[in-house]
Amino acid sequence: MDFFSAMNISASGLAAERTRVDAAASNLANADATRGPDGKPYKRIDPILAARPFENDMNATEVQVMGMAQSEAPGRKVYSPGHPDADGDGFVTLPDVNPIHETVNLISASKAYDANASAIETLKTMAQRALDIAK
Amino acid sequence: MKLFDSTVSTLERSLDVRLQRQNLLAGDVANANTPGYSPKDLNFREAMDAATGTNEGQRPPPIDAFITETEGTPGLDGNRVDADHALVQLAQNAIQYGASARAVGKKLEILRAVADS
Q1: ipTM over the 0.85 cut-off
Q2: What is the H or E stretch that residue B114 is in?
Q3: How many Å lie between the alpha carbon of B86 and the closest alpha carbon of chain A?
């Protein structure tokens, strides 16, 4: 266990929170996208976070992004007969994205990112104190 | 009378314990949004008591033995981290680490003064 272990743990937190921001940004940007990469309406994504022992040290835990979960929920149906992606009844299927939900996620991820950054800052101060012993 | 008495080794132990605790708290902050995660902490007093109670020449018990999983109310995703609490502990722990580090520095300063006189 050394100073750089704790910094790397906090760095894993930074990476995880950034992934959450990326996902929320992608969901918000595609809130009305009727064609995703597969030609179907965009599916909202959610990162899967998992705690993992840091470098096989069973005590300290870092966080890891295990992957992205794609929402399989049916989209919102909106009546819009003139739309090129409208079905036979004139309904367009929009992604299952709730902008309020995404915005809340965005704020929560951004705050958590700050928390990890300040943990690193605190650790830097600590390391400096240790170096000062020999001054 | 030895040159490096038990003060230095006690302070050394406290620096080790504080650093280990910092690592645990950093892990708690990093996992503030991991579903089902329970925060970990370290009982500083118990870890120190165990070391000061150890006879000379014996190795103190490993710090890992004093790690506890914190109880707390889980959120909707089963996560028990209180981010505010973890950050406050993180800051406090760092200050106390600084205090121990400074004490070691002063102790060495005294020895240096003796050596130079």
Answers
A1: no
A2: helix B83-116
A3: 10
